[in-house]
Write a structure and sequence with these properties.
By secondary structure, the chain is α/β, with parallel strands linked by helices. The protein is built from 16 helices and seven strands. The protein folds into two domains: 3-35 and 319-491, no CATH class; 46-278 and 290-304, Spore Coat Polysaccharide Biosynthesis Protein SpsA, Chain A (Alpha-Beta Complex). It starts with a helix and ends with a helix.
Length: 494
Amino acid sequence: MGLTIAYIIIGVYSTALILIFMYSLSQLNLLINYLGYKKRNEEAPKFNLLDPKEIPFVTIQLPIYNEEYVVERLLDNIAKIEYPKSKLEIQVLDDSTDDSVFETSKRIEELQKTGLDIQHIRRENRKGYKAGALKEGLEIAKGEFIAIFDADFLPEGDWLKKTVPYFKDEEIGVVQTRWGHINRDYSTLTRIQAFALDAHFTLEQVGRNSKGHFINFNGTAGIWRKECILDAGNWEGDTLTEDLDLSYRAQLKNWKFKYLEDVETPAELPVVISAARSQQFRWNKGGAENFRKTVSSVVKSKNISFKTKFHGVMHLLNSSMFLCVFIVALLSIPMLYIKNTYGHLGWIFEVTSFFIISTIILFVCYWFTYKSIQGSSFDNFVDYIKLFFTFFSVALGFSLHNTVAVLEGHLGKRSEFVRTPKFNINNLTDSWKGNKYLTKKLSPNMILEFALMLYFLFGMYSAVPLNDYGLFPFHLMLFLGFGFVFFNSLTSKA
């Protein structure tokens, strides 16, 4: 390996490490915000829903697409929402192309007979996918406020009573609630998904919202002021995360978002890795698409502070961290050999301490979010340590898949909105086998993931002849992570 190539590798590797370090510092700042906010008891103006004159009209939108396994559960649950029937309508925005349409229609007719204002809205095509369905429903929505739930969400009966009152403040455009997980303990895959989402819905959402930084409506389990949607330019289907897109456009127009950590909306996590793959791909590519679409507006805005701009840029770059992590992983083995070939470059390897510091920062941040939900006992801390390193390894294993998504997003390659298959998995005895919506194809990335598993096995072996074990734990986690993703993808296709 020539010295010039060695310098290029060191430069790229160090740049990726520094970006990851900046991201971890932004997370640390959010933790400080989060802990400070938890000590505050802030009062907000609220509608008095006991006064009929203060009860606003609400439309609930349920965007669905081929949801045979969960649509009846969804409709029965929404029918139990406690709100005056004269001030509530429900729109079932059904883009389905399978037999579930007939069962949905039948159940809606039964609910209509109970006096519920529920409509079955169908489109001729899926133009704009979910964003298109929401936009079309909005045109005829009677509500001043629009609550949105995906098909796998199960809001409590008093959900509207806990969220609608905050719109008394006319500057608030969105109220978002925290996701819960009805099948958190189903498998290792569901536990690590819950772990990551809990961090987002505690540390990130509270950390940003408490200081007036931009947050995002999470696509579901939230409620919009209709005026806010229209003022921000309405739903657009030009990215795979229409929720993030509209959220930023609304906040750039000075609408405030209210996040309610204490209101939990239970939902079902994907239990099969192919479903998790499609969800991860959509979220990460959509994040990159929104960075490309929105970052210049954030940076140029005269209405927001430097700190809000910084957190906005880091938020939009969230998914791009997978690209940085993948670069660090891929170059870590050449770096090991450079270190042992060019002794005079040894000082440069102090840069690798950035990765250790970043990992420690994330470990601390995620512990505070974990204990806020699970508790802070010694046993919980031990469980947390195991879960953190399992999560970290599997996240590394997803880094190739998510890097492809991020690169496509940044390069502007368009792709279809692929919904996440739902399963109606509520407990450990439920099975996903036979789900007709699961993809029958193996991901082409699997071949590369298997190759990367072997590559990092070689990295672990390299530590022996070089007598350098500094990167051995990192390569072990990469080996286990890519192995987990590869073997689960191989065995859990339909």
